[in-house]
Write a structure and sequence with these properties.
Elements lengths: L14 H13 L13 H23 L4 H5 L2 H22 L8 H9 L11 E4 L2 E4 L4 H22 L8 H24 L22
Antiparallel strand pairs: 1-2
Helix pairs in contact: 1-4, 1-6, 2-4, 2-7, 4-7, 5-7
Length: about 210
């Protein structure tokens, strides 16, 4: 991937706006799966998750190696590339379960960020026992969610970026977090897949009082 393809914000763009834009860019396209339906989707999904987590850790750790200001320049490209790895992982896990046709941008949004910002995504899914039934967002609700996610994730990025000033040890910490984070995404995807998806569930508005996903 060439440098111009990476999401480096223009001068004056706020960090929150930049992060929100990256999220929108990531979920704008649901990638084609690289795998087919498996006779043992649980075991296959485990392997896919571990492989994606290793790739995310190596990528994120490598981008965090440059210390100081140079390392800080890699934060947004890091987010974008890690989320692309996780996006492909989700698509592959759905494919292993034979559920590719049901995967939408809203499901992708929920799978990628549920563990990081459950309060933002509280209206996106309802609980049915241990299942998480994802509902489609209206365009207005999606815009609101993207803005709120941008705020929440920017705060997290700011809180963890200090490690990029610490050579080697900081890169190791960043890589370890990427590994854990990717496994959490896989866990959410498999929770969603624990029950049939409902393609006819009506759109929800961010102001709705629907039950929260736990």
């Amino acid at each position: 991937m060439s440098l111009p393809d990476l999401p480096i914000p223009a001068n004056g763009a706020s960090a929150t706006t930049a992060v929100s834009g990256i999220i929108e860019r990531v979920i704008a396209e649901v990638p084609a799966p690289r795998l087919e339906r498996s006779d043992d989707p649980a075991a296959a999904a485990d392997e896919v998750a571990r492989s994606a987590a290793r790739n995310a850790a190596m990528l994120s750790g490598s981008l965090a190696l440059p210390p100081g200001p140079l390392g800080m320049l890699t934060v947004l490209p890091d987010l974008y590339l890690i989320w692309k790895i996780q996006r492909q992982m989700v698509a592959d896990i759905f494919a292993l379960h034979g559920r590719t046709a049901e995967l939408t941008a809203t499901h992708m949004l929920y799978c990628l960020f549920r563990h990081m910002a459950s309060h933002v995504l509280r209206d996106v899914a309802v609980r049915a026992g241990e299942r998480a039934i994802v509902r489609q967002l209206s365009s207005t609700a999606l815009t609101n969610v993207l803005g709120s996610l941008g705020v929440t994730l920017t705060q997290r990025v700011v809180g963890t970026s200090a490690s990029r000033w610490i050579p080697l040890a900081g890169a190791a910490a960043v890589g370890a977090y990427a590994y854990w984070d990717t496994l959490q995404v896989a866990k959410t995807a498999r929770r969603v897949l624990a029950s049939p998806l409902d393609p006819v569930t009506p759109s929800v508005d961010s102001a709705s009082g629907s039950s929260a996903a736990g």
